[in-house]
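pasting for ref
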Amino acid sequence: MNRPQDLFEAYQARDPLVVVEEWMIDADGVLPEPRAMALATVSLSGSPSVRMVLLRGLDARGFTWYTNFASRKGSELLATPVASLVVHHQGFERQIRAEGPVVVVDNDEADAYFASRPRGHQLSAWASSQSQPLPLMHELVEREAAASERYEGMEVPRPDYWGGFRLQPRVIELWQGRANRMHDRIQFTRSDSGWFVERLQP
């Protein structure tokens, strides 16, 4: 793992999304759930809500995850398409923060990702009305069994209420832990001319 002594000197001239991808590769296969991230959205009343999700795509376009559009996070993102996220790699003393507008992933990309999921995960997308009240657990089990029977011997299609979101970062912060809380922080802010980078105090 490359751990520069000074993040600003090492990364000031680089695309932060490429650096984030390198940090993710460092953690893959080494740390447990390295692509788990806390995702914060905003309700119609302006209240924040946060939950853990898995990062399912990372490229020049931004950070991608998938969910039921009618879930709390899905409905909040459709109504107020902005979010912030954080990935914390405790074992490496690293943290990645990003914030910006959110867009819905196009259908072809969502279909391709859904097709790559384990069959049980595909069936659960049909069984669960995510975030809605569930009086009895067996009702969910019965809906999963019904979906399994309905698509027996067939490919499971993606429900039209299930898909992806992509955060297009306007701000990215990279954080590296240091002794005595002298942490190293740099922040990239996107502008019309590219990324502006500055060092932040810990």
